[in-house]
Design brief:
Strands 2-1-3-4 form a 4-stranded parallel β-sheet. Helix 1 links the parallel strand 1 and strand 2. The chain contains 5 helices and 4 strands; from the N terminus they run βαβαβαβαα. With 166 residues, it is an alpha/beta fold.
Length: 166
């Protein structure tokens, strides 16, 4: 990986919570600094980032600059970043017909419950987002620590897919 960071796209249906948390985490964790550039998108974006997601990120001193809810079409269009990895983080996006990604990036499904669907008090909602963020952060840390230079494509793809089971 000498020419550029690996581009990683986190996908979800609404691109307002889980995929946003993934983008922010991979771009802010010191283990991944310089090695990865994170993005997020949705098949049917909500048009706004969930305020609980933004609050959680800010409380954890993660930058929220530039985070926005956007369509996955942006990443299939000419001039879009060349993607190396595409991770679906919700069940809906995993079953949808994805756009053609130039360069055939590795894909994996890292599905988890939607924290934005949690009903109850503000504390209940924040707790759901915190749990989701913790799981995503751990998966990203495992992903970032993989020996990319020592694994062939098939081995790396298997390891990336297995992360959701750890």
């Amino acid at each position: 990986m000498s020419h550029r960071p690996y581009n990683v796209l986190f996908l979800c249906t609404g691109n307002s919570a889980r995929s946003i948390l993934g983008e922010a985490a991979i771009n802010n964790l010191s283990i991944s600094q310089g090695k990865f550039k994170g993005f997020s998108a949705g098949s049917h974006p909500k048009g706004a980032v969930n305020p609980v997601a933004l609050e959680l990120l800010q409380r954890n001193n993660f930058s929220v600059e530039g985070l926005r809810s956007k369509s996955w079409d942006e990443f299939a269009a000419p001039g879009a970043p060349d993607l190396d990895f595409v991770f679906t983080v919700c069940d809906d996006a995993a079953g949808e017909e994805c756009p053609y990604w130039p360069g055939q990036p590795m894909t994996a499904h890292w599905g988890m419950p939607d924290p934005a669907a949690v009903q109850g008090s503000d504390e209940d909602k924040y707790k759901a987002f915190s749990q989701t963020f913790m799981v995503l952060r751990r998966r990203i840390e495992i992903f970032a620590s993989l020996p990319f230079d020592k694994l062939d494509r098939l081995s790396l793809e298997k390891r990336v897919k297995d992360i959701a089971r750890e």
